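Q: Can I see a sequence and its folded structure?
A: Here is a first one.
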Amino acid sequence: MRKLTLIFGIYCAFLSAQTIAESVILNPYQILNVQSGQLYKAQILVENGKIIQIGSNLTKKTADAKVINLPDLTLIPGLMDAHVHLMGNTELKGYAGIG
């Protein structure tokens, strides 16, 4: 039973490693530059979970990448963990309590 569990665990780790390693091109309707406030058309190349390049015609440069078309969406970067409560309990709990 332990061997079967070990083999299954290794198999799952191998599958997740393959998923993470792929290149993806996001093709939204537009992108918001939060510093300038400008909207522009571009594509985003993501490799191994990190943004590598933002530009046009990335599909031609990286033919092996998976393209995800987002025709009705505007991408807005930098809103990670944007959930906040301005009023209410003032005790430091959760992430803030960790330091």
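Q: Show me another, different protein.
A: A second, unrelated one:
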Amino acid sequence: MGEGNGNRVKLNVKWQKQMLNDLEVNLSEPPFTFKQQLWTLTGVAPERQTILGLKGGKLRDDANWEATGVRSGMTIMLMGTAGEIPVENPIPMDVDAEKPADGGNGPAGVAEVSSGALVKPTLAPIGLVNLGNTCYMNSTLQCLNAIPELRSHIQQDLPQELGSTISFTTALRDLLAKLSSKNSQVSSVDPGQFLGALRRVNPQFLERSREGFFCQQDAEECWGAILTFLSNQYEEQQRRVPSQVPENAIETLFGLEMEVTDVCDEEGSDEVIKKTEMARSLKCHISQSVNSLYQGLKEGLEEKVSLSSEALGRTVEWSRNWRIARLPPYLWVQYVRFYWKSAAQLKAKILRNVAFPFTLDVHDFCTEELREKLKPAREVIRDRADKDSQVKEGTQEPDSKPEETLEEGLSGTYELIAVLTHQGRTLDSGHYIAWVKQAHDLWVKFDDDQVSLCRDSDIQKLSGGADWHVAYLTLYRTINK
């Protein structure tokens, strides 16, 4: 490889009548990353780019830079037409939050996002400036911004003023609006106003190190703090003017109703205790036997506890089992990767590889009653998949009849739309990044104010097993069409 500064070289790119001089290229990244850079400069999407002037002919997305003979000062040619390319299965960030793609409203007042809509991709998704160990907040906000219904409800339901907490909701509303802006001149925004509001209502985020710097925080705690505050505001608003706020949108969008069953394990007692709890996420427990999200969820829904037995008159061991009684449109999963390491007095990280799917089926974790409700929708999805397979094989003509619409949340099947990762060995250090789905096999990587594109194959590498970015939270959206 030719001259350059380490793994970086500077290239000149001729495109039409323009000359783009001294573009810095990181050779440790695949050529696809360079094509993303050209996309933001020219508007020519990677799929339309033909790059000539290097060894091997047309530059492939996964080419080995060393084999191309690239060196600093070279001039190469870019061929391709700038323009917006319609894509299928857009993420919510590209759908008007106040006007669902199907033109209607989903059940329970939650707008539906049509998975078949054709919308333009965001030419340059907007990043967030890191204000000093604030990647935990930035990555959380980018994941939340992938939920158009949340933006819509915050905009429409919650008042501009509500006591002393006005700044939090207003700051969040304004920031999400900026992130969803189509202003091609803005590459990143400063989240300082919202950060100040977050710290005012959650003093834990004001913690400083011995050197006086703000400490790194837990992204899952940030996510929980934001949703808890918004949920409390809904409840307060419902008490004040119940006719104007028909639902708590936070619980509608994310609320899981869990049926908890405790069974006494000791002989001489057949006691069974049942109760209902609410949650906003599922926990993926990680042990030596867990290699997949399914296994981790199963472990997280079963445990041994010590409870008092009335029949035996003493504290004994019980088996506790959780089952889902109500499914939400959006499903958050937390990977329990941190544990207290007493010898080092810190929260250490479990790096174990835990594979997570692009499509998650939680049917097995539901109550019998809910499973019965899931049957009709699952049969529709199964029949549709069979027909699609037959059409592809040429054994059946495409169905001209309109597809049956499934009632929201009743299939038990979810699609992955965002991943929040952590890189580092401890909870109090490291770096958080958000990865948000853009289209089929196309994702946006939000590394604070550095925004780039990646593929499904890159997302699959986030399962752990090394000092790379590791999934800490995953966001799934129900498949209801």
